[in-house]
Design brief:
This is PI-PLC Y-box domain-containing protein. Pfam families: SnoaL_2. InterPro entries: NTF2-like_dom_sf, PLipase_C_Pinositol-sp_Y, SnoaL-like, TAT_signal. The protein has helices spanning about 5, 10-15, 45-60, 90-105, 160-170, 175-180; strands at about 70-80, 85-90, 105-115, 120-125, 135-145, 150-155. Strands 2-1-6-5-4-3 form a six-stranded mixed sheet. It has six helices and six strands; from the N terminus they run H-H-H-E-E-H-E-E-E-E-H-H. The chain is an alpha+beta fold.
Length: about 180
């Protein structure tokens, strides 16, 4: 007998209680990931619909099509101490970050999406394929304004593993090439 059977509550019941919809697990398509099952609810938060649309377009692989989802002043924060860390400001910086992730062959399998007010939280398993070596749980918090993503904050389940992987995978240019020459 599983712990679900003993408690009388299934994973689907828990997800329904969180307001998760079937489309809400569209995070599974993030970077070409696989599809995951999700619970159905009778209504879907409009910001979950937006993030589902975003992930569907992202899965197509044409990053320029993502522009319509981003506010011009978008801020996308990648925590850590590695070459990709920091806050990307504006559409061009965010798209450059996505191009770098694509070079590392990132994949994701959605766990759930939930929304409240202006925020959508996405949890997924994310892993690398070029080179292999990173396989952790991630959470993203999206803030939505006027049907556009204005902020996204990544939360790796294991920051030390993420830092080590990104240092191994993305080398900095030589010091003279990194200095601002004003």
């Amino acid at each position: 007998m599983t712990s679900e059977d003993q408690a009388g509550v299934s994973r689907a019941d828990v997800l329904r209680g969180l307001g998760v919809t079937a489309a809400g697990v569209a995070a599974a398509t993030l970077l070409g990931g696989s599809t995951a099952q999700a619970a159905e609810t009778s209504t879907e938060h409009p910001n979950i619909r937006l993030i589902n649309e975003y992930y569907a377009v992202y899965a197509e692989g044409n990053l320029n099509k993502l522009r319509r989802f981003f506010a011009q002043d978008i801020r996308w924060t990648i925590p850590g101490h590695h070459p990709l860390a920091g806050t990307k400001v504006g559409v061009e910086e965010v798209l450059a970050f996505f191009r770098a992730l694509g070079q590392a062959g990132f994949r994701a399998e959605g766990i759930f999406l939930a929304a409240q007010g202006d925020w959508v939280v996405d949890m997924h398993r994310g892993w690398s394929t070029k080179p292999e070596g990173l396989d952790i749980t991630w959470a993203l918090a999206f803030r939505i304004r006027n049907r556009r993503i204005v902020e996204a904050i990544n939360f790796p389940g294991d920051q030390h593993a993420a830092d080590a992987y990104f240092w191994k995978t993305f080398k900095l240019t030589s010091l003279p090439g990194r200095l601002d020459r004003r």
